[in-house]
Amino acid sequence: MANAFHVEAISWHHRGITLFGENRELGFAPLAHSPTRMVAWNQPVAITERPSERPRILDWDAIFAFALFVPVLFIVQFASYGALFFLFVTFVCAAARHRRLCTLLRDRWFVLLLPAWACTSALWSEVPFETLKHSAEFAITILAALLLASPRNPRAMLVGLFWAFVLYIAVSFVAGNTVAVGDTDTRAFSGLDESKNQMAAIAGTGLVISFFVFAIGLQRRSVLLCAIATAACVLESLATIAARSAGTLAASAVAMGALALLFVLRRAGKFGRGITIAAVSLGAFAVGAVFEFAGTDLLQWLANSFGKDPTLTGRTYLWYRARELVAESPLLGKGFGTFWQQSNLDAEGLWQFAKITARTGFNFHNTLYDSLVSVGWIGTFILLLTLVVGLFRLGSAYAGRPGMIACFWLSMAAYNFVRMPTECVGFNEFYFSTVLLYAALGASCPVATAPLLRPIVARLAFACRSEARRARGAAASAVARSEAR
What we know:
It is a single chain. The protein is built from 18 helices and six strands. The protein is of the alpha+beta class.
């Protein structure tokens, strides 16, 4: 089979021409790239790797990722200034990529459905202004996720993510704060926050990113990169264990196992990758459905088996109250961002139950319940549609072209899905897990069929033009002969 080389840069010098880009198979390349940008050959030639493919500290994609995540990771310390800086970074990046932004939003249309429904929920919300405010912030968060999912240099973007999480974990160990676990005398590591679950979620996410950076170091045979990633993995593993979050530990183990499996499947055929991804995805959805719809009995049994709190640190009561609230408005919900308001007596009671004196920043610790209370069954169906379409496109992209970046986003999606039964994932604006979840869903390249038809259309157009030229030439010759007579 002929090879194909996606040309991204050309360098002229006295010895010849050097092409910078990526080596691909000709059968896959037209799915995502215009044939006019491909160079095909049948003889082996020397390929020079584009220097920008290597992660660099001062790469703009690395700077964007680092600047985007630092304010959301340190949101407790930065408060409203962190949100303002997040907005500034997002809008600056959107303005810099304004030519690609419309195409990006059109190709990732399914990710925009939930923010649109959230804005619509202001029509029946008891506090419409707050609903519009939270919906707008949620939409901007998803915009930032889409920008993160479509960088010019993906590996540089991951380097920026890596250093943002390493910075937060290092500062958290310096702070060294701890909080009580439920009503027991046991204490858990909380770092810079007052929530051990927040600390565990950040440390677990950083652990998955560091594990991927370690894999990149092995691929490049870089001892320095492997050493830095190993140190980060150790630090983040200690933070995850000290935070005493069983759900995050399980999610981290599943994500790293998925990442290792995806690396192995890169050497398998396209059919084998597709079958494996489909089987694993169906199994994951089945397990998730069992956990969501089997009630609290299964989770309580697991908690008892591992010696954990049978109430799951108060989650069972939160889920009981969530079911009562869903029954009040099952289809439409109460409105996006409406429930957790200080004027809401139900929210005040749950804050008092959880001993949250700040009376902010709480949830039902279950993505399904948070979705049902907020946007109802209609909004939950839209969320499920977004997850299914995003995963299908991402899995299809990996099966067709198993790149390293696709492996990372699939493992990050697995990490967030495992946390959904016990945490609220994907509904908090200006939050790191929301950005990473929708970035994973929007990272897949659209399956374009138009490039496959372009050669046929081009041949037809060329034939039509050639026929027109011959007709005009024949008419001109006839006129010339008649004048000569």
